[in-house]
Amino acid sequence: MKLTTLLLLTIPLLLPAQEKFLTLNKAWETALESNPTEEIAQARLEQAEARYQQARSNYQPSLSLNVTGSRLDYSDSYLELLPSGYPDSEQRFDADLQATWVLWDSGSRKNQVASARFLSEASEAALLDSREQLLYEVGRAFTSAQLSRANLRITEADAEFQNRQLENSIRKEKAGLDSRTDRLNFEIRKLAAESTSVQQEANYISAMAALEALLGQPEDQALPPPVMLEPEDKSLPEEIPDVDQLWEQAKLTLPLLRQSELEVEAARASVSAFEGEYGPDLSLFGNLTAEREDDPAFGGGDLGNSVGIQLSWDLWTGDARKQRVLEAEAQLRETEAYARQVQLQTLSVIKQAHTEYTASVQTEALSSKTFELSEENRDLIESSYEAGREDLLRLNEAQRDFNNAGSRYVTARLQRQLAWIRLQQATGTLRSKVKVPEQK
Questions:
Q1: d(CA 237, CA 420)
Q2: Average pLDDT, stretch 178-189?
Q3: 225 Cβ partners below 8 Å, 6+ apart?
Q4: What is the DSSP string of 54-104?
Q5: Could you tell me which of 233, 226, 232, 231 has the C-alpha nearest to residue 150?
Q6: How far apart are CA 404 and CA 323, in angstroms?
Q7: Coil, helix or strand at residue 225
Q8: Is pLDDT at 226 greater than 50 in this prediction?
Q9: Local structure of residue 317 (DSSP, 8 states)
Q10: Distance between CA atoms of 258 and 241, rounded to whole angstroms?
Q11: Which of 95, 136, 222, 419: disulfide with 360, CB 3.0–4.6 Å?
């Protein structure tokens, strides 16, 4: 495949200092390390894990200590009722150490823990899904920047071509071999190419700004330009599995599907937890008390204790308990419906991504062949024009076709790259391509 000219129009790839160019994998790694989205998802996971540990703590006994000190000054009218010499004030000190341990609560505690555990695991799946989405957005922005820079190079090369023809035309005009109209034609087309280059450069700057935001780069730290796909790049497959195989893979690897399934399990456990409120609670308790007047210097003679077991059962609470169960059941139906919706949408996205990638392979092949032919055609016509066998209109047409073919080929090549990224994200395998940085 002849791609030398196209590479000269875009970006030199095989340079010694490769670090001067940004690769897609480096962009992905930077985004996972610096983009706030990753930090947000991680914080949500930590919150869910903390709620799970809170639910588990309900299995442990509780211990509380209360200490009070009080002074009571009697009123004169009250003192008149007391025997003579009775003190006109009184100090009292109390201490109470109480332990309580819930032995049984009709399964509410068990199902609360289960619900919290499922939600914690769902948050972990949400973190992975967030990574998949972030990597896709970075891939799309990276591809857009690649395309903008490639189009910029194409328009710059067109301006160089027109300038070269202009210089030749000026020499011919001075020698009486060319007309002023030919020189003006090349001058106009050169200015048009330069004007297009200005717009393409603006598009490239905008695309890089979007990429910098996704990568979480500070304002004073500019990104290096993105690399282009190599001419014989084999990382993109020619053939891919069918939709049924991709769907089976997605069931195993797509975090969004896993997240929706776990949320259904959490909602189901939540219903059981509220239903447990209809049953009794059985608790073991123990108290150690101390009472003393005048000063808080408690001694063994001031201590008392009690140990017991308690059964409590809310026989009637109005409609509150019933409504909590009904609310939880409605939430369960909502999460079940959402899970079905996720499955339908996932299958649809996989079908679309499969179709897009298959079409992009064919489009790239056709665009590549068209570019090669348009390059050969332009070179032949340019030689014929120099020899006086072709007119200016034909050369202009050939150059325009060459530029358009080059732009379409670069676009098709990068659309294939983006379609491949989209297909991997649709099946939940994109994150496996990137090394996840360790949490700080």
A1: 9
A2: 78
A3: 11, 20, 21, 22, 145, 149, 208
A4: HHHGGGS-EEEEEEEEEEEEPPHHHHTTSPTT--SEEEEEEEEEEEEEEEE
A5: 226
A6: 66
A7: coil
A8: yes
A9: B
A10: 22
A11: 419
Q: Are 144 and 411 contacting, i.e. CB atoms less than 8 angstroms apart?
A: no
Q: Given 3.40.50.920, 1.20.1600.10, 3.40.50.880, 2.130.10.10, which CATH number is that of 4-75+88-429?
A: 1.20.1600.10
CB 279 within 8 A of CB 107: yes
Secondary structure (3-state) at 319: strand
Angle CA(419)–CA(420)–CA(426) in degrees, nearest 5?
Answer: 85
Give the whole-angstrom CA distance, residue 169 versus residue 219. Answer: 46
Unique residue bearing structure tokens 């930090």: 39
Q: What is the pLDDT of residues 304-356, one digit of tens each?
A: 899 999 999 999 988 999 999 999 999 999 999 999 999 999 999 999 999 99
Query: Are 111 and 180 a contacting pair, CB within 8 Å?
Result: no
Helix (H) or strand (E) holding 310: strand 303-312
DSSP 226: B
- Domain locations in the chain as residue ranges: 4-75+88-429
Place of tokens 């299958």: 347
Instruction: Specify burial of residue 7 (Cβ count, 10 A radius: 0-12, 13-18, 19+).
Output: middle
> pLDDT tens across 204-219, in order?
999 999 999 999 888 7
Hey, what are 301's tokens? Answer: 């003679």
Tokens of 322: 């019933």
pLDDT given at position 15: 36
